[in-house]
Amino acid sequence: MPGHRFALAADGYPAPPDAAEEVCGMRDERTDQGRRPVSRARSGTVGRRFPRTGTEPVTARSPLRLRLLLAALFLPLFVAGCALFAVWAAGADPGDSPSRGPLIFISAVCGFLALTALLDLVVVLRRLRRERGSGR
Questions:
Q1: Taking the model in full, what pTM does it have?
Q2: How far is CA 131 from the centre of its chain?
Q3: Other Cβ atoms closer than 10 A to 98
Q4: Rounded distance, CA 67 to CA 119, Å?
Q5: What are the angstrom distances between the C-alpha of 57 and each of 46, 61, 73, 84, 90?
């Protein structure tokens, strides 16, 4: 058919007749809106989930257990660091080294990281609960 382009197989030859469709009207099953949703509820989205369309593996999953472990490990460390540097800053005299300013800054950074770890812990627990099917 002059003027029409057809799909090619990986080796460069025309694709089999049942798979070859015109390139300009080619239907991609991965991006088709009429597809069926994936049975596993994917984390981080609202509504129905469909198969991924990117180049990542089909079985790609977020490492939620590792994130849970890291958040649970670092949350108390950052809280302890925040408290330690805050107490150290409160007891620092004007001539001490390090002075009060850097200690307050380090305490604020530890507090921010503790808040980030707490939020990540909450998000991971919600996603794990939802994947088990007992979520709201």
A1: 0.56
A2: 15
A3: 13
A4: 11
A5: 22, 9, 29, 44, 52
